[in-house]
Design goal:
The chain is α/β, with parallel strands linked by helices. The protein is built from ten helices and eleven strands. Helix 8 (195-204) links the parallel strand 5 and strand 6. The chain binds guanine.
Length: 312
């Protein structure tokens, strides 16, 4: 049945990760799941060891407004930081807070020598100038990698702080031995947080990169060419099996809260045609927090002069 629908799928079994050997004469078993939870746990354990060596590391977060998902995410970030031995400072402000007060708080954190990394959770409340606020974070403390200085360094192939979700996607692909060099990579979504940075990271890994977005005329024609497909849009089920090249590595970044739980941009049936697939939940999600913690240690090293942070 599967073979009839996706007759080419079985030809790509040889690309399965070494830990999941797929005998060539066995029936197609579906995609290797690129689970983020185990890898994230390992990274967090490494971070904890390094944080102990460095001593006195600190991450400060700023959350403005009542977005319930943002509150959950920020709470998880604090729990993860504390578990790794990184002090965390949690600033939650009402949605009515004037923009100038948010900027004043960020300034205070910029000046505070006890703070290594600063994260302003997005989205900010409607009417607040997101670019102005994120640009107010000192680049060396910008663990999100959203400041133009950090985005510019990524563009110049000299990454400093890199957006955590994009970095997490790359770690998952690397961990599973997914070939990137010379491969066709298609990224659906052009956000500053994921789409653009992951495109640049794939390009730096020598993939041939196409970025698709809401004005792309024939999305399926693009995605079907992809050896590596990253979906980062936030539209549940946007990517159907017919849009995926058999054997492709599919990274599902989209997370939408539905009645029955979290759903990604990728239809679950894609597991029957892809070679690798990140599950939702448990794929990219856990990686974001792990990479944020790693970025906090990087900030600590920059600030202690253990690594050079170029002058802006
Ligand atoms: N909102 C959704 N993802 C992120 C993220 O990675 N960082 C921040 N600051 N806000 C977000």
């Amino acid at each position: 049945m599967r073979a009839a629908v996706f007759p080419e799928a079985g030809r790509f079994r040889g690309r399965a990760a070494p830990s999941f050997p797929q005998p060539l004469d066995s029936p197609w078993m579906g995609a290797v799941l690129m689970r983020g939870a185990d890898l994230a746990q390992r990274i967090r354990a490494d971070v904890a060891r390094e944080a102990e060596e460095l001593g006195g590391t600190c991450l400060a977060t700023v959350l403005v407004g009542d977005d319930p998902a943002s509150h959950v995410y920020v709470t998880r970030k604090h729990e993860a930081a504390e578990a790794a031995g990184i002090e965390s400072r949690d600033h939650r402000l009402p949605a009515s807070t004037p923009e100038e007060d948010v900027l004043a708080l960020v300034d205070e954190l910029n000046e505070d020598d006890g703070v290594d990394g600063i994260l302003v959770q997005l989205p900010l409340p409607p009417g607040m100038d997101e670019a102005r606020v994120t640009e107010s974070v000192l680049p060396v403390k910008d663990v999100d990698g959203f400041h133009p200085v950090n985005q510019g360094h990524l563009l110049l192939d000299k990454p400093l702080h890199v957006p955590a979700t994009a970095a997490g996607c790359m770690e998952l692909l690397r961990e599973h031995g997914v070939p990137l060099e010379g491969q066709e990579a298609v990224v659906v979504g052009r956000s500053q947080i994921v789409g653009k940075p992951v495109s640049l990271l794939l390009l730096a890994a020598n993939a041939t990169v196409t970025i698709c977005h809401s004005r792309t005329t024939d999305l399926a024609a693009q995605t079907r060419r992809a050896d590596v497909l990253v979906a980062a849009v936030g539209r549940p089920g946007l990517i159907t099996p017919a849009m995926v090249k058999p054997g492709a590595a599919v990274v599902d970044v989209g997370i939408t809260r539905a009645e029955h739980g979290l759903v990604g941009d990728v239809d679950a049936q894609v597991a029957e045609v892809a070679g690798w697939l990140t599950p939702v939940p448990g794929g990219v999600g856990p990686m974001t927090i792990a990479m944020l913690l790693r970025s906090t240690l990087l900030a600590a090293r920059f600030r202690r002069g253990l690594l050079a942070f170029p002058a802006a």
